[in-house]
Design brief:
- Residues 35-388 form the Leucine-binding protein domain.
- By secondary structure, the chain is of the alpha/beta class.
- The chain has 2 domains: 35-152 and 294-374, Response regulator (Rossmann fold, 3-Layer(aba) Sandwich); 155-285 and 386-400, Rossmann fold (3-Layer(aba) Sandwich), CATH 3.40.50.
- It is 43% helix and 18% strand.
- It has helices spanning 2-22, 52-67, 87-101, 112-125, 155-169, 183-196, 200-203, 218-226, 238-251, 266-273, 275-278, 299-311, 320-339, 345-352; strands at residues 26-27, 35-42, 75-82, 105-107, 129-132, 148-150, 175-180, 204-210, 231-235, 256-259, 282-285, 342-343, 381-387, 392-400.
- The strands form 4 sheets. A 5-stranded parallel β-sheet has the order 3-2-4-5-6, with helices on both faces. Strands 8-7-9-10 form a 4-stranded parallel β-sheet, sandwiched between helices.
- Helix 4 (112-125) links the parallel strand 4 (105-107) and strand 5.
- The longest helix has 21 residues, at 2-22.
- The radius of gyration is 23 Å and the shape is globular.
- The N and C termini lie far apart (68 Å).
Length: 405
């Protein structure tokens, strides 16, 4: 009898212990019962400082989250350093975040070249490089870089969509391509050529690259114009895209002008270039324009505008960069919520790579976020858009890229 009682007692003890073990909290460096440390570098100064408002919006979002009680009861400590869009500086600052501040993960490091500079380091350290602010293909490669996930739509895919658009809408175009001499520009260039297919060699009559450090791109624009091109694709970041639009207007050259999604900000690109000069520019989009009357009663847009008014009142609520900062921060919080009490780096990547139809407040209707362990692409849906001199006009159906890359 004693043996039976002892056996039952042992069984009950095991049964009672099982839920406790199951509920046991798991932490890696950077996470505790009260805090989650997240690290970021951003160009708060330097040639790409137009992107600084993204980081400011993200910091404001985390202030809001913390004021509301944090994520699963933990405050998010977003540690931000300026890297001036300089890869050597990014390396220095990311090492400081990982080895000094001991963050759980990095989030939204901004820029293709800065992210490339720390890609191998973060993967070797097994520190999540989460939602990197770039669309270069190497940042959605789970086989070779399982700790890295980009956020931006693939530059190659976006370029391919422009190529397909040109074939359909401007089949006789003479195409000139202005491209930034790094992974961003190279991916766009490869993408538009893939979209044009076997007609690329004939249709592309000029290519001109520029270095990010160059003060102007005037000579490149003149070279493309002199080639006889009547359609220009600018695979550029904000400063150079604005320069291109302005230069076209100054010299009276009026090609069909496509700009990439990175340069689509009205406040940071089109206004500095001149709204009249920017009229007719074509791009793609996947987010709502906050001031567009069609979103006046949209609940997601209302939440965004309320957030900007309370937590970032000095920011331009109509800036696409601030919309971008808002949705990326919203997605990070979603991943951290899914992690529950398992705040290990491995689980962060597991949750990030198992997102299913996640809605974000400012995504266009019909666009959601889905990832899998073999498909790290967060954004693979677009809608074509044309600038009418005041706002982007969306047209056509949502385009979903089905290919892996």
């Amino acid at each position: 009898m004693r043996t039976l009682i002892a056996g039952l007692a042992a069984a009950m003890a095991i049964a009672c212990a099982a839920p406790a073990a199951h509920a046991q909290k798991k932490y890696d460096t950077g996470a505790t019962d009260s805090e989650i440390k997240v690290g970021q570098t951003a160009p708060l100064s330097g040639p790409a400082s137009a992107y600084s408002s993204i980081a400011k919006t993200q910091a404001a979002f985390m202030r809001m989250v913390n004021e509301q009680g944090g994520v699963n009861g933990r405050k998010v400590n977003l540690i931000q350093y300026d890297d001036a869009y300089s890869p050597p500086k990014t390396v220095e600052q990311v090492r400081k975040l990982v080895e000094g501040d001991e963050v759980l993960l990095t989030f939204q490091i901004i820029g293709t070249a800065p992210n490339a500079a720390v890609l191998k380091y973060l993967n070797a350290k097994k520190v999540p490089q989460l939602f990197a602010a770039t669309g270069a293909a190497r940042f959605t490669d789970p086989k070779n870089f399982p700790w890295t996930m980009g956020f931006n739509p693939s530059y190659f895919v976006e370029g391919r969509i422009y190529g397909q658009f040109i074939l359909k809408q401007h089949p006789n175009a003479k195409v000139g391509v202005l491209w930034q001499n790094d992974d961003l520009g190279k991916d766009y260039l490869a993408g538009i050529k893939a979209g044009l297919g076997d007609k690329a060699a004939k249709m592309i009559v000029a290519e001109a690259s520029y270095e990010l450090s160059e003060p102007t791109i005037d000579s490149q624009i003149l070279k493309i114009r002199d080639s006889g091109a009547d359609l220009l694709f600018s695979a550029a970041t904000p400063k150079q895209a604005a320069q291109a639009i302005k230069k076209l207007h100054e010299i009276g050259w009026k090609p069909v002008h496509i700009i990439d999604i990175n340069a689509g900000s009205i406040g940071a690109v089109l206004k500095p270039a001149g709204l009249e000069a920017s009229k007719g520019v074509i791009s793609v989009g996947y987010v709502k324009e906050p001031d567009d009357p069609q979103w006046a009663n949209d609940e997601g847009n209302k939440r965004y505008l309320d957030f900007m008014a309370k937590y970032y009142p000095d920011g331009d609520r109509n800036s696409s960069f601030n919309v971008y900062g808002y949705i990326t921060a919203q997605l990070l919080v979603q991943v951290l919520k899914q992690c529950g009490d398992d705040l290990t780096r491995e689980n962060v990547m597991r949750q990030a790579s198992n997102l299913t139809n996640v809605p974000l407040d400012m995504l266009l209707p019909g666009i959601t976020v889905t990832t899998t362990p073999t498909d790290y692409r967060v954004n693979k849906q677009f809608q074509m858009a044309k600038f009418d001199g005041e706002k982007w006009e969306r047209y056509g159906d949502i385009i979903t890229d089905q290919a892996k890359e």
